[in-house]
Amino acid sequence: MSFNENVQIDAGRARSGGGGGGLGGRGIAIGGGGGLLALLLAIFAPGLAEQLGIDTGGGSVGQSQYQQQTGSGGQSQPLSDEECASGADANQNTDCRVIATTEAADEFWGEYLAQFSDIQWRQPQLTLFQGGVSTGCGSASSATGPFYCPADESMYFDTAFFETLQTDFGAEGGPLAEEYIVAHEYG
């Protein structure tokens, strides 16, 4: 699937970096596939989990990685509108594709719920990160995979996850598979 090249994207909707801590590293952010692995490693091999960069909920592995990469304490910065301004950018850049897919899903659910239910749509925050992030659910590393944190009503994506699926696991879905994963975080 591709986006209309002329459609406008609001890159200001997404944040890059961390989402600010909520539980001080005591919680565990559980996401697609990586959550079960983190749980098993936390139980059977906690030292190995930390060496692999998987947050088991007892430390600040993800936060430390995030601080090393950004030099900050988890402050989010908006993405540049120039980086992700159009559908053409979404067709070429994974970060922009995640933003555009999120905008499309927000529009769909907002309209659908208003028409067919009494549920008020609450748009989740979107955070793109690299390496690790501190969230309202605790720290998370890239190994967690994409996830939604109910404590801060935010979706978190390290877009290197999509590359890992291709290089390490031979995934062949391209942009449509990426968009499916983004849509999955909506529930």
Automatic annotation (TrEMBL):
Record Pfam families: Zn_peptidase (PF04228)
InterPro entries found in the cross-reference section: Uncharacterised_pept_Zn_put (IPR007343)
Main location: membrane
Source domain of life: Bacteria
Any Gene Ontology CC annotation: membrane
Annotated localization: Membrane
Claim: Repressor is one of the keywords in the record: no
Transmembrane segments: none
PANTHER family tied to this protein: INNER MEMBRANE PROTEIN, PUTATIVE MEMBRANE PROTEIN YPFJ
Protein name, entry field: Neutral zinc metallopeptidase
Lineage: Bacteria, Bacillati, Bacillota, Bacilli, Bacillales
